[in-house]
Amino acid sequence: MNRDTKFNVIRTAASILIALGISFVIIFFISEEPLEAIMKMITGPISRKRLFGNVIELTIPLIFTGLGVSIMFSAMQINLASEGAFHIGGVIAALVALNLPMPGFIHPYAAILLAGVVGALFTFIPAILKIKTSANEIVSSLMLNYIALFFANYILNYYLRDPGAGAVASYPLPASAKLSSIISGTNIHIGLIIALLFTAGAYIFLYKSKMGYMIRVSGQNEDFARFSGINIIKVILISQIIGGFIAGMGGGIQLLGLYRRFTWTTLLGYGWDAIIVATLAKNNPLYVPISAFFLAYIRIGADIMSRSTDVTPEIVSITQGTIIILIVAKQFLAKYKHRMVAKEAKSTIDTEGVE
Amino acid sequence: MTVFEILFSADFLRVILRVTTPILFATLAGAVSSKSGIFNIALEGIMLLAALIGVIFSAMFSSSWMGLLAAIIFGGLVGLFLGFLVLNFKTDDILAGIAINLMAAGGTIFMLFLVSGDRGVSSSIDSIVLPNVNIPIIENIPFLGRVLSGHNVLTYFVFISVFLMHMFMYKTPLGLKIRAVGENPDAAESVGINVHKIQYIALGLSGVLSGFGGAFLSMGYLSYFTTNMTAGRGFIGLAANAMGRSTPIGGMLVALLFGTADAAANVFQTGIDIPYELIQMLPYITVIVGLSAFSYRNMKKKEKTIEK
Amino acid sequence: MSEMILEMKNILKIYPNGIVANEHVNFSVRKGEIHALLGENGAGKSTLMKVLFGIEKQEEGEIYHKGQKIQINSPHEAIAKNIGMVHQHFMLVPSLTVAENIILGVEPKKNKIFTDMDEAIKISEDIAKKYNFDIDVTEKIEDIPVGTKQQVEILKALYRGADILILDEPTAVLTPQETKELFEQLRKLKDKGHTIIFISHKLDEIKQICDRLTIMRNGKSKGTYETKDTSTEEMSRLMVGRDVFLTFDKEKSEPKETVLKVRDLCHVNSAGNKKLKNISFDLKTGEILGVAGVEGNGQSELFSILTGLISNYSGSVKVLEHEAKELTIKEIRDLGVSYIPEDRMIYGCAEDMDILHNLISNQFDKEKFSSKYMLKSDEIEEFSSKLVEEYNIKADSYKQNISMLSGGNIQKVVVAREFSAEPTLILANQPTRGIDVGAAEFIRKKLIELSREGNCAVLLISADLNEVFELSDRLAVMYKGEFAGSFTDIESLTEEELGKYMLGIKKDEELEGITYE
Question: Which of A136, A252, A256, C115 is most buried, most CB within 10 Å of its CB?
Answer without folding.
Answer: A252
